[in-house]
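Researcher: Next sequence.
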Amino acid sequence: MDIINGGVCAAKGFTANGIHCGIRKNRTKRDIALIKSEVRANAAAVYTTNLVKGAPLTVTKNNISDGKAQAVICNSGNANTCNADGIEKAQEMCRITARELGIDEKDIVVASTGVIGMPFDNTPIRNGMRELVSGLGDNSQLAAEGIMTTDTRLKEIAVKFTVGGKECKIGGIAKGSGMIHPNMATMLVFITTDCAISSEMLRKALSSDIANTFNMVSVDGDTSTNDMVTVLANGMAGNEEITCEGEDFTAFMQALNSVTVYLCKKIAGDGEGATKLIECKVNSAKTDKDAKLIAKSIICSSLVKAAMFGADANWGRVLCAIGYSGADTDVSKVDVSFVSAKGEIAVCKDGAGIPFSEEQAKEILLEEEIDIVVNLNNGEYNTVAWGCDLTYDYVKINGDYRT
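Model: Next structure:
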């Protein structure tokens, strides 16, 4: 498969747009995004595990219970969460969108992101909908900007692949910078594809994929309230519909995974105040569960994250995180090394420190992308998790986020 341009508009039949409609006070910030499929598409979604859920998630779950959707509407600046009339407002948001698009309001995925507990007013959305719809086109980037909150970088990707002799495309946009933590790593991700795949297999593909991608991302340990990953597949590539496992389903899974892994890295690397992307690779675990527990524990450790910010090869903090992870492993067999574009350095062997150059380690850890490689020497299971460093700016951003 090959990376291509276009984001959520790369696949046939999908258009998008993003504008400033007035939800956010800053007029230079787009605050609403729309993605539309030319035809009804098969749809699947996964949602945050937080018991406090934004009203849009409830409405979306109901809307796509039939496995179908044709558009995605998402605003930033206000989460529409913990509001007594939240469900009503999310439904109204669907009606406003559907009326302008000329589609059924039940065929809409609705999402919101921003401040929790702020009264939600649809007036800006109602007033801006005509402009939003009239601007639909090859505008994935504008849609990506419309869903950003504290993000500092656009997050979009698209790839092309082959299924049954037909060229298919899949692309996605994402937002996510703070309140990112495993358990449906908190974010908004919208993925589109022209591959023909049944709703059932689409759900199976997404549920399987997130276990090794979005559920393996952490920025700050906070699981948010509004986040979900959705996939729309409109079948316009013309391949025979994927209805069961096999070669075609595998090809689709690989393409989906290439999109989700890319977005995971972009989200982790753009963590609030972050200066570094941390990729933790855990190898040779006894079970898949153990591998995941350890990888998550390491990237979630505030002490590890702070050490990475300071380019301090404090490998003892990695061992500490392994020790309290709850995984079944023999710490006397653990090896640890740090890797970046500047090289690799081993810092721990068989659970104990080994001589290494602090100067070389510092040079390696000053890079923007760092791998923490852990070999448990205890089995055959491997996994990867993504996180970021913990900086002074994280506190600055979140100290006055609401005001």
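Model: The chain has a mean pLDDT of 92. The first helix runs from residue 55 to 63.
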